[in-house]
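> example.struct
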């Protein structure tokens, strides 16, 4: 009996007590994504383009206005959280002098509210006017997304990233260097983007008169030589990006970047095709909306609908990154 009792004690120690001691003694590291102290009150200068003036704002309140303007408020909460973290990272990076554009139309301000230059922003008054009866529901949702991610930013190798995003990638995002004249970013690489086809801007087209098409080309390229018979015979896609967009296109005697062609004809994306609409007009069909680099907002919403967290969404669209709390 004594031997049995000793055996039982040894087994209890081996099975229950010892593992508890080991677990307690190990140093398991885990990202802390919600800061305990929310007492910080960082303020920044924002150039409000709509009012043509610089306004001082509390940082987290500014982020709420960005989320309210940049992403549809009816999107899933986890998608809105991902947008909040991206917007905060964008702002912090500019506060630290990172990724600044060559032109600076808002001297003395960290960011502006012009979406073509910095990030879009919407005041609570504008939100009320835009959202009508749903404004309180939507604004509370935006606040929840920002508050739940308070202070969290995205880093790569312990440095703030350039968290660019767009509406709809058309099914696959782009490598940064294939869109802009920049070195490759290891976290801004082409990935499949599920659910983009559900976006309202997934499929678009414009119809343009052939003579207007030619006039725009000649205005941009005065020396261009074009065929007099059928302009489509002079159009050839020379190369595609990894994301499936037009990288270079030749029209007549001129070869241009897909981004140049997109800007010239104000297209939704560089994923386009040109066809004949009638004997005198052309149809340019586009898939997706935006430059296609970084996070696809419609893709993020699709992932959120599948039950994915904002952390998973961000780490999918920005490869190899970490989420950290700003100290």
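> example.seq
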């Amino acid at each position: 009996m004594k031997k049995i009792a000793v055996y039982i004690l040894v087994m209890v120690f081996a099975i229950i007590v010892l593992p508890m001691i080991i677990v307690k003694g190990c140093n398991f590291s885990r990202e802390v994504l919600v800061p305990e102290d929310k007492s910080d009150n960082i303020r920044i200068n924002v150039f409000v383009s709509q009012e043509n003036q610089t306004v001082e704002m509390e940082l987290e309140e500014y982020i709420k206005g960005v989320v309210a303007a940049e992403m549809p408020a009816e999107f899933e909460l986890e998608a809105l959280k991902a947008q909040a973290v991206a917007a905060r990272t964008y702002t912090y990076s500019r506060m630290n002098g990172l990724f600044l554009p060559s032109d600076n139309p808002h001297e003395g301000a960290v960011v502006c509210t012009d979406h073509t230059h910095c990030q879009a922003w919407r005041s609570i008054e504008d939100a009320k006017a835009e959202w009508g009866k749903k404004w309180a529901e939507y604004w509370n949702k935006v606040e929840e997304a920002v508050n739940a991610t308070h202070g969290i930013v995205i880093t790569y190798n312990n440095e703030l990233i350039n968290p660019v995003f767009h509406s709809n990638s058309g099914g696959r995002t782009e490598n940064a260097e294939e869109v802009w004249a920049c070195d490759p970013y290891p976290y801004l690489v082409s990935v499949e983007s599920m659910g983009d086809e559900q976006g309202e801007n997934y499929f678009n087209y414009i119809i343009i008169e052939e003579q207007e098409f030619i006039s725009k080309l000649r205005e941009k390229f005065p020396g261009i030589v074009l065929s007099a018979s059928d302009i489509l015979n002079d159009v050839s896609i020379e190369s595609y990006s990894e994301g499936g967009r037009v990288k270079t296109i030749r029209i007549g005697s001129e070869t241009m970047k897909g981004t140049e062609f997109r800007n010239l004809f104000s297209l939704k994306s560089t994923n386009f095709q040109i066809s004949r609409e009638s004997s005198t007009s052309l149809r340019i069909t586009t898939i997706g909306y935006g430059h296609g680099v970084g996070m696809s907002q419609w893709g993020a919403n699709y992932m959120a609908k599948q039950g994915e967290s904002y952390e998973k969404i961000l780490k999918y669209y920005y490869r190899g990154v970490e989420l950290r709390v700003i100290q």
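> remarks
Residues 12-39 have pLDDT under 50 and may be disordered.
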